[in-house]
Amino acid sequence: MSEKTQKSEPSNQDPFIFDNNWGNWGKLPQDANQLTTTNADGEPVVPLTEEQKFVFDTQGWLMIPDLLSEDDLKEMREFCYQLVNDKGSLPPHQQTPIAGPLEKLVDHPVVVGFCNEFLAYPALSSEEYYGFRFETSFLLYRQKGMGKFGPHNGNGLWRLPGNSHIYRNVPGKGYSGLTRVVWELNPVKKFEGGTLFINGSHKAAYKIPESIRDINSSLWDSYECPAGSVLFFSEATTHSAQPWQNESVDRVPIFNQYNSIGSRFHWWEPPKELLDQMPPKRRSLFRQAYSEGANTDLEIHNLFQRPIG
Ligand SMILES: [Fe+2]
Fold first, then answer.
1. Ligand 1 center to residue 254 CA distance, Å?
2. 111 CA distance to ligand 1 centroid (A)?
3. What pLDDT sits at residue 304?
4. Which residues pair with 61 in a beta bridge?
5. 163 C-alpha to center of ligand 1: Å?
6. Is the pLDDT of residue 83 over 70?
7. Ligand 1 centroid to 137 CA: how many Å?
8. Is 149's pLDDT higher than 50?
9. What is the largest CA-CA distance in the chain?
């Protein structure tokens, strides 16, 4: 083997990724593989740890606790209560859970770190643009007794293209299609109202057993967390709500959702006036799904196998 050939070969740490690259190993030259390293506020992106990647890949969901300060939480909760109780007092473009103090959650450094790993398409990612899309956002406010058990999704193995509820992986690399990112702004106690999951169902080969229709099935797992924690889950993972059981605090979670740069599942648009006020990098989350030659703002010259610059 010549020295040149040896040099271009990836290390055995690199996953094999099929791409528009003549069947070559999917490792890209550094300048074409620029995952975004800072968020719109200039904060360095926080990559997932090896353990966090492993947990998300094997379970289909991941909890990262305690990321927000008390001051931020107070301001965010107040904004949420305004959305719930007195929405009309906010200007129309602020009547959404991606506005005001909640805006910075959409590209929080830990969220970008997660999406860089499990969603971003490196060839359409840069320091100016995120390589993934934002899909939807809603505030799922609950007092004691609100919320109903209703399992859905699961059996995500080898779903066909066109279905955004997919999870794919090869040794060394996971790809999560439609992905939910939940910010819990109040504490959650285990099995007292947080989202329920069937671990591993995002890539289950066998049918989900009927026994999971019982909320007390031991197959259901969940989390507990302090206020200011973030929960990631693949929408291919079987999941369910359950009634909120805590009477001393309400559930105040922001349900944001992301997708790959070329896919769109929900028809949801943020207020244009809000987008106009966002820094361009954050605004890039809200681009239309990528389509060559018909996209909004995206440069296409960093696609695989295209000349750079
Ligand atoms: Fe759901």
1. 13
2. 19
3. 37
4. 233
5. 15
6. yes
7. 13
8. yes
9. 70
| Domain regions of the chain by residue span | 29-286
CATH tag for 29-286 (out of 2.60.120.620, 3.40.640.10, 1.10.760.10, 3.40.50.1000) = 2.60.120.620
Q: Is the pLDDT of residue 238 over 90?
A: yes
Phi, psi of 269 (to 5 degrees): -125, 135
List the single range of 26-40, 136-150, 267-281 with lowest mean pLDDT.
26-40
Rounded CA gap, 70 and 127, in Å? Answer: 30
pLDDT value at 33 more than 50: yes
Nearest to 268 by CA among 252, 289, 293: 289
